[in-house]
Request: fold
Amino acid sequence: MPTLYVVATPIGNLRDLTLRALDVLRDADVVAAEDTRVTQHLLDHYGIAKPLIAAHEHNEHAAAERISGLLREGRSVALVSDAGTPGISDPGAHIVAAVRAAGMRIVPVPGANAAAAALSVCGCDARRFLFYGFLPAQAGARRHALETLKALPFALVFHEAPHRIVSMLSDMRAVFGDARRIVIARELTKLFETVHQTTLAAAAAWIDADANRRRGEFVLIVEGAADTEDGADDEVERALALLLDELPMSRAVKLAAALTGARRNHVYQLALAMQDAR
Ligand code: SAM
Reply:
């Protein structure tokens, strides 16, 4: 059956490609890639010769049409991004939505993901976490986004680029305070892989101490807000999930606070984060 395979590729170490991903890349008729040069390098490494088409954030609509057309002709397509899992801070979501809307088969081929790799070695309480991805680049919007996350009792997982790491850590400290712990996971699976746990007060000094620490790709994991007098957030979230579907946010927050006994401001912060995540 013609199928769109959504295939995870390595985030650094080329050997982090699953055996199944190799099978799928070998068997697909076409590989749709975020950057065909990056994927060509991966395919060359494994001796796979395959027609490549571009599917990046600037042509996702056209790429979705083209991929749907290929599937309609009975061909199979493997969709990959430059690194890790397509659709996670990467193009892919629109293509998947379009192919699903056209009623065609989509199969995930799971594998590397930078956030999951960082969570697996962070050593913090990440039983519950919120994956945020990239914060806004603009300072005001970034601080606002951090404010909406401040009260959440979940570990917070961010992507960050090297040129923004210093300002990002400074904004996090300003919004979350000095005491919160952070895990800085850098260059995972690569030669200079570093995983460092510290506090937001000490993070800037650690980054400043060695220019190499500002280089590469980062996942940042910040511990969640202490879960104190606000009670069981599971209950608040369940109430909010139902109410936000039916009511404006202010009404939903008011009712969820009344139903659960949680502070209205805390419920409001949760509602903002849930709405952002929708
Ligand atoms: N789709 C990818 C995934 O599943 O991991 C994420 C792609 S996103 C465009 C790129 C960001 O992921 C980088 O800016 C960095 O935050 C993170 N990242 C990717 N590879 C990484 C690595 N080897 N070590 C640490 N972070 C990495």
About this structure: The chain has a mean pLDDT of 94. The longest strand covers residues 129-134. Residues 11-12, 81, 83-85, 88-90, 113-115, 159-161, 185-190, 217-219 surround S-adenosylmethionine (CB under 6 Å).
